[in-house]
Specification:
heterotrimer, A alpha/beta (about 500), B mainly alpha (about 325), C mainly alpha (about 325), A: about 500 residues, alpha/beta, Rossmann fold, 3 domains, six-stranded mixed β-sheet, 17 helices, about 35% helix, B: about 325 residues, mainly alpha, ABC transporter involved in vitamin B12 uptake, BtuC, two-stranded antiparallel ribbon, 15 helices, about 70% helix, about 5% strand
């Protein structure tokens, strides 16, 4: 198996996938050769998961051709893909924790006759499959009793047992520690040396450089390019992922004021930490400032917001709001203290889909005031009229269910929901994701107005431009710690990207 | 365009059903709607329906709010029996009426609180959590009455089930009053919004700073209270507490009334008026079957058919499937 | 604590509770520890046991079926009426089983194809079956046919024990249920789709047919239980099996099967049945205790097991 096959193992040409109203993938070429580890990279919404779902038969491609081992294929279901030799291991281990290791390995194709299972053969087969990966596990133990890393290995063993020639690993390292990642890489290299093609999706650039041979970058559903890992410097990779050549990025507008260290502190964290989410973090947010929180996906940006807002509870460190130590036990507490948080996940953490724009808009304010002190209907309508005009929310009227609005308008309603509570600090997590350009500019203008009005703003974004254009200070996170910070004119795209990529230490670097 | 289509109030469906049933009854029995006044009190079939339906109305009220949070309460029938039994035993033992009623209601509230604790605090699925009290509650009711039917001879207590107030039957007045009071409370305070928000998207409600867990817990307490009241009304209606039969299958009728009334089992937007009409529709259906000479035990069959129709109407999968069917048929 | 031991805790707990109950009942009540009592435990709970076997399969998938008690009642009056009208009992039984299976299949299709809540659909099934039972007859109907008499008089003598037909049917059902659940692909697929339907789909398992088959099988078993009930009482009664669905669910949960699906064991359901039966028999032996204690005790056991499962799930989640 070791000699290089003549043609590529997998070849996609012009593959596209349309959903009603959305083009998730357009004209993408993607080639994986046998005996290589190929990184598939891109930020959220780049089209990685759509591409994988097309490959594994969960979605059907709307256009384009897929050939596997030289034959045109079109997998219609995960089962068909597996039968072709394309197996996938998902980030959320898609196995069943309540069943045994052996069953998870062989479910649906346990050896036996006429639907009856030969348990002896099943266990033996499972044990052998795991031994091939260098694992000696109790195959009768429940899968759920294993560490995530071992569960991941079981998933890989299941995939390989299907006689896979192409293995897709979709963010397999997201919840593994360093040692476990090293073990996984050992297995990946061994498989590659045996002639397997491996597609590796990850957010961690260190891992890309540690284990992959080639990189394909996607952005906004289109192909950016394919590169040899050894030939692509980190900084170039990051700029390709976030879609800007360093020189292209517009500089800061001159309007942003210099940061003022005397401005009153709204919230301050010291050593705020949570296991598996965030290393101890110091952060100070001041009145009248926009603090940009930059970092790649998985760098701990959203985790920081959740800790500050009491969605998750910290394991350590302290948090002060206006100088007073607080235990942020719930979002309710955070709202009471004058915090506001627009989540990046609008659909599951933001909107109440079937309720009206009006109800969505007044929800946080009403929650803050409690059950008895109602916002009267007249006040509600005045608030709606005000914000619909001020934020230019496009809706037939305030009584329309919010699910009928476009993403950008939903986002504006959620912003209005928080502004109505007159917060001292607003955390905006990816406020412009999935929003058209017009609405984007309006939201950025709004951020400027909020700053001028004296709010503290924490702006989380994977778009460097957005951070650079709007922030008075920037904190960079990488691998769940603060690695750099910038102020005023030091906020430059290239410096930020360097810090995000970890290409070279900036401002003291990281441990 | 889909906005326009949905602007037809879902309350109209059960209302059409109710009207259709009344018309059917009128055809079969021209005197169906006839109401007579005797000794300054109203009598007649519609009054009977209201009187017998009052308990179902009260249960449906509590159930509406539980279902609005995306839950369900299977224990209301058993709570009815336990509350009715406790009050009856205390009355027979010579305790004051206030104490007896208070104890019955108190027991029901405690039971609701237990449900709320299991669902909101411990995160147990509502069906599972309330199943426990559905089983225990019935046993407790039998324990309280020592397995006997406790006869009550207390005219004041009986008023709750059979009394007249200003010539009108008291039980339906009480049920109607409760609906109005609940409506005012839910819509004049923020309670209704909090319940709908929690049911529509619990996570988003929590992110917006609502105490979603408290909301979920409290609706079960309220539902328990309603069940307790219904239990007292049932005991007063037959002047006895029958711990075996009282409230039997009433939880199913209550859920059914709510679903027919247009409140989705998945939670979110709730329609008190819909549940009200749904419960009346159910009682009218039962009475109609009775008048048609169908044994009362067969009455579940049309109920089953109605549930299926309502489920299919509400299911987007079903609509898509039938839509596809018609489209294909149209092309062919 | 070894993981292997940990995963057996619910089963061991049920076994322990059964032993403690049975032995203490034996100490308290003279004549309790006898073969006859043990045999009666099976014979008297045959209907519940058969229904619980089917219910276990449905609960494995994360579903629930409220219609089983009504199906028992329907089968009972349906077969008795047919036999009374001169239809051969074997034919009547076959017809009843077919109707049961058909109802289950219909409910399964509605639940799977239209994503309707199992709870509501089987509730409708319950209304339909119970109403249908009373439609046939509101009175109980006696059966007398040579075949029925032979069957109900038959006893398999095994040493000191004499097992009547009902107990034999129960044992056969339990063994078949055990083999099906733990030694066939179908049985494991039930648990897989109860554990995570999406995962099961991605693993290429036949989710739809498995789910529909579970409801079909469960209703067929409920019909079988109805036949056993008819044989056991010698008559058909439309109100047979009222509330049986609750007892069956309780037996399954006390047996350590997770009500939300994906985890459980058929042996647990047998142990749950024995616990249930022992409490009932002990109450019969003890003239002072009344029948409602069984509901209270079973309900509290239900609570205890649901809390135990909750704690174990949290523990498992915490270790990850």
């Amino acid at each position: 198996m070791n000699e290089a096959s003549p043609g590529p193992l997998l070849q996609l040409r012009g593959v596209g996938k349309r959903f009603p109203g959305v083009i998730a993938l357009a004209g993408v070429d993607f080639t994986v050769r046998a005996a290589e580890i190929h990184a598939l990279l891109g930020e959220n919404g780049a089209g990685k998961s759509t591409l994988i779902k097309v490959l594994t038969g969960v979605y059907e491609a709307s256009e384009g051709e897929i050939s596997f081992e030289g034959r045109a294929v079109r997998p219609g279901s995960p089962k068909e893909a597996e039968e072709l030799g394309i197996s996938t291991v998902y980030q959320e281990v898609n196995l069943l924790p309540a069943l045994s290791v052996a069953e998870n390995l062989l479910l649906g194709r346990q050896p036996g006759l006429g639907g009856f299972i030969n348990w002896g053969a099943t266990k033996r087969h499972a044990r052998e499959a795991l031994l091939r990966l260098g694992l000696d596990l109790d195959v009768e133990a429940e899968l759920g009793t294993l560490s995530v890393a071992l569960q991941q290995m079981v998933a890989i063993a299941r995939a390989l047992d299907l006689n896979a020639r192409l293995l897709i690993l979709d963010e397999p390292t997201a919840s593994l520690d360093e040692h476990e990642v090293a073990e996984l890489f050992k297995v990946m290299r061994r498989l590659r040396d045996q002639g397997m093609g491996i597609v590796f999706v990850t957010h961690f650039l260190d891992q890309v450089y540690a284990v992959t041979d080639r990189i394909t970058v996607l952005r906004n559903g289109t192909l950016v390019g394919e590169y040899l890992t050894a030939d692509l410097p980190r900084l170039a990779l990051v700029s390709k992922m976030i879609g800007r050549e360093v020189n292209d990025i517009a500089g800061r507008s001159g309007e942003l004021p210099a940061p003022d260290d005397a401005a009153p502190v709204i919230i301050e964290s010291r050593g705020l930490t949570r296991r598996d989410a965030l290393h101890p973090l110091d952060l100070t947010l001041r009145r009248g400032e926009v603090t940009g929180l930059a970092g790649l996906l998985g760098s701990g940006r959203t985790e920081t917001a959740r800790l500050l807002f009491g969605i998750d509870q910290a394991d350590g460190g302290e948090l002060k709001v206006r100088g007073e130590a607080v235990r942020m036990a719930s979002a309710r507490e955070a709202v009471r203290l004058g915090l506001a948080f627009c989540s990046e996940d609008r659909k599951s953490e933001g909107i109440l889909p079937n309720l009206s724009v009006r109800e969505n808009l007044i929800l946080a304010l009403q929650g803050k005031q409690g059950i008895w002190k109602t916002v009267t209907r007249v006040e509600q309508e005045a608030l709606c009229a005000h914000y619909i005009a001020a934020l230019r929310i496009k809706t037939p009227d305030a009584e329309t269910p919010i699910k009928n609005l476009s993403g950008g308008n939903q986002q504006k309603v959620l912003l209005a929901r928080w502004l109505a509570t007159k917060p001292a600090l607003i955390i905006l997590d990816e406020p412009t994701r999935g929003i058209d350009i017009g609405a984007r500019a309006e939201i950025e203008a709004l951020i400027g107005r909020l700053r001028a009005d004296g709010l503290a703003v924490l702006l989380i974004s994977s778009e460097i431009e957005e951070i650079v254009r709007n922030s008075t200070r920037v904190v960079v996170l990488r691998e769940r710690r603060r690695t750099a910070d910038f102020q005023g004119h030091a906020i430059e795209p290239e410096a930020l990207m360097r810090a995000m990529a970890g290409a070279s230490p900036v401002n003291g670097g990281h441990s | 365009m889909s906005v326009r289509k949905k602007s037809i109030s879902p309350v109209l469906w059960p209302l059409f059903g109710l009207i259709a049933l009344v018309v059917l009854n009128l055809v079969l029995n021209h005197g169906f709607l006839k109401i007579t006044i005797l000794d300054g009190r109203l009598y007649g079939l519609p009054i009977d329906i209201l009187n017998q339906g009052a308990r179902g109305l009260v249960l449906a009220l509590g159930m509406t709010l539980v279902i609005a949070t995306g839950g369900v309460d299977l224990s209301v029938g058993s709570i009815m029996a336990a509350a009715g039994a406790l009050a009856a035993v205390l009355i027979v033992k010579g305790c004051g009426l206030t104490l007896a009623l208070g104890a019955g209601i108190g027991l029901a509230i405690a039971a609701g609180g237990a449900n709320g604790l299991l669902v909101a605090r411990l995160g147990i699925q509502p069906i599972v959590a309330t199943l426990i009290l559905m089983v225990v509650g019935r046993g407790a009711a039998q324990l309280i009455t020592n397995g006997e039917v406790v006869l009550i001879n207390n005219p004041t207590f009986e008023f709750l089930g059979n009394g007249h107030f200003l010539g009108l039957p008291f039980a339906p007045l009480l049920a109607g009053g409760l609906f109005i009071a609940a409506h005012l409370f839910l819509r004049r305070t923020a309670a209704g919004l909090f319940i709908e928000a929690t049911g529509d998207n619990e996570q988003a409600a929590r992110f917006a700073g609502l105490a979603a867990a408290h909301v979920k817990g409290l609706v079960y307490v309220f539902c328990g209270l309603c069940a307790g009241l219904a239990g007292l009304m049932a005991a007063a209606n037959i002047r006895a507490a029958d711990s075996y039969r009282m409230g039997e299958n009433m939880e199913l009728d209550a859920i059914f009334a709510v679903v027919v009334g247009g409140t989705a089992l998945t939670g979110g937007r709730f329609l008190l008026l819909g549940a009200f009409v749904g419960a009346l529709l159910l009682q009218t259906l039962t009475t109609t079957m009775y008048n048609l000479g169908v044994p009362p035990a067969v009455a579940p069959v049309p109920k089953a058919v109605l549930i299926l129709v309502v489920c299919l109407l509400q299911s987007s999968h079903a609509r898509r499937w039938f839509g596809g069917l018609f489209k294909k048929g149209g092309v062919a | 604590m070894s993981p292997r031991f940990r995963q057996r805790i619910p089963l061991l707990a049920t076994a322990g509770i059964f032993l403690v109950l049975f032995i203490s009942a034996g100490l308290f009540y003279e004549g309790f520890l006898s073969v006859r009592v043990a045999v009666n435990l099976l014979a008297d709970n045959a209907v519940l046991g058969i229904v619980a076997t089917g219910m276990t399969l449905v609960i494995f998938t994360g579903g629930i079926d409220l219609s089983v008690g009504a199906v028992v009642g329907f089968t009972s009056i349906f077969t008795a009426t047919l036999i009374a009208r001169g239809v051969h009992p074997a034919l009547a039984a076959a017809a009843a089983l077919a109707i049961g299976a058909g109802l289950g299949a219909g409910m399964g299709v509605l639940i799977h194809a239209f994503r309707l809540p199992a709870f509501l659909i089987t509730l409708a099934g319950m209304f339909l079956a119970r109403g249908g039972a009373f439609w046939i007859s509101t009175e109980s109907t006696g059966i007398s046919h040579p075949l029925c008499n032979t069957l109900s008089g038959y006893e398999l003598v095994l040493g000191p024990a004499a097992l009547p037909t009902t107990a034999l049917v129960l044992l056969a059902t339990l063994i078949a249920g055990y083999v099906l659940a733990h030694h066939t692909r179908f049985g494991r697929n039930l648990l897989a789709l109860g554990g995570n339907e999406n995962s099961a789909l991605l693993m290429g398992l036949p989710v739809g047919t498995t789910k529909i088959a579970a409801y079909t099988l469960n209703s067929a078993l409920a019909a079988l239980a109805g036949l056993v009930a008819t044989l056991y009482t010698g008559s058909g009664n439309p109100s047979t099996g009222a509330g049986l669905e609750l007892d069956a669910i309780a037996v399954v949960v006390i047996g350590g099967t997770l009500l939300s699906g994906g985890r459980g064991h058929m042996v647990g359901s047998l142990l749950g049945l024995l616990v249930f039966g022992t409490i009932q028999t002990a109450l019969l032996f003890d003239g002072r205790l009344s029948s409602w204690w069984i509901r209270i005790v079973v309900g509290l056991l239900l609570l205890a097991f649901i809390l135990l499962q909750r704690v174990m799930l949290r523990g498992a989640a915490g270790r990850r």
